[in-house]
Design goal:
single chain; two-stranded antiparallel sheet; 10 helices; 5 strands
Length: about 325
């Protein structure tokens, strides 16, 4: 089971136990997760296709939405197939390096998702506060650089997780009470001191999550001030309506994310472990599943594009900033 090197015991593989305490219900738990994953893949791939093929959607707001959809569907694909193998076929083994790779992609992509939500908030700020300069500020080059910066930030901040986790000795065993390889879940299996892992994880959460939330809060504060100053009720309603989809996406993403983060560090003994695991999975599956639905319902241009695609009719797109 183990291969030893000069400094530590390194397991050849980990065993992911799924949802501890609910092993008998794994099949039933897998059904909603599988359904959500299929919905997420279909919905997000559909959004990417629609944005790519409809010229009326070739605008900054929808480019950021396409980037969010790509991040969401990639995040789900990183974890759900392996999770379903655990639930359906009892295939619980995962190679040690494969576990580290999954851990890296899970955290990098969740960090990227947070960054894209921040960029979308800045997009709404420019659209509402500087509508006449919107197209000149958010050019294709600016959007590409912003997306690349968000990706590189995630890679550079998350990559040390793999080294910090790999250096730990795993002499207690190789059983992980989780459905996927999460940084702290893997570190807690170690018999060594993982304090550095916990501190660095907290620093990354501050540098990504808290920073992005602060930028989002500042953006919406400025948006609120600009909207309140509008004299027309219709203008205020229109400005607010362009933000509702994004606000829903923020709530759907950050609420389970903060629950998972804080229970891992401060509420491990007061909250049943199976609740923590289920919420951690919803944290990865709920945003990819709900975001296409929210944007499809709340965004008129996307609704019109879906109707045009399904019915093969020519639909006049409503122009909106």
């Amino acid at each position: 089971m183990f291969g030893a090197n000069s400094s530590s015991l390194t397991p050849k593989f980990f065993i992911l136990n799924g949802v501890p305490g609910l092993e008998a219900a794994h099949i039933w738990i897998s059904l909603p997760f599988c359904f959500m994953y299929v919905m997420a893949v279909v919905g997000n791939c559909g959004l990417i296709y629609l944005i790519g093929h409809e010229e009326a959607l070739h605008r900054p707001m929808y480019y950021f939405l396409a980037l969010l959809s790509f991040t969401d569907v990639t995040l789900g694909t990183t974890t759900v197939p392996n999770m379903l193998c655990i639930f359906w076929f009892n295939l619980k083994e995962i190679d040690f390096n494969g576990c580290l790779a999954q851990m890296f992609f899970v955290h990098m992509l969740t960090g990227m998702e947070s960054g894209v939500l921040m960029l979308m908030a800045l997009d709404r700020y420019v659209a509402i506060c500087y509508p006449l300069r919107y197209a000149t500020i958010l050019t294709s080059a600016v959007i590409a650089r912003a997306g690349l910066a968000t990706f590189l930030r995630g890679v550079m901040l998350i990559f040390p997780f793999t080294f910090l986790t790999k250096r730990l000795p795993y002499c207690r065993g190789n059983f992980i009470p989780h459905t996927y390889c999460d940084h702290m879940s893997v570190a807690k299996v170690s018999c060594g001191n993982f304090k550095v892992n916990a501190i660095y994880g907290l620093m990354v959460a501050l540098l990504i999550g808290v920073f992005d939330m602060c930028c989002i809060a500042v953006s919406y504060t400025m948006i609120l001030r600009a909207v309140v100053s509008l004299s027309s009720t219709d203008a205020r309603h229109k400005a607010f309506s362009t933000c509702t989809s994004h606000i829903c996406a923020i709530v759907i993403t950050y609420v389970p994310a903060f629950f998972t983060f804080f229970t891992h560090r401060f509420g491990g003994h007061s909250i049943p472990h199976h609740i923590h695991i289920i919420v951690a999975n919803l944290y990865l599956l709920l945003p990819p599943t709900m975001n296409p639905i929210v944007y499809g319902i709340k965004t008129k241009q996307i609704r019109e594009g879906v109707i045009k695609f399904l019915l093969g009719e020519k639909v006049a797109f409503t122009q909106d900033t």
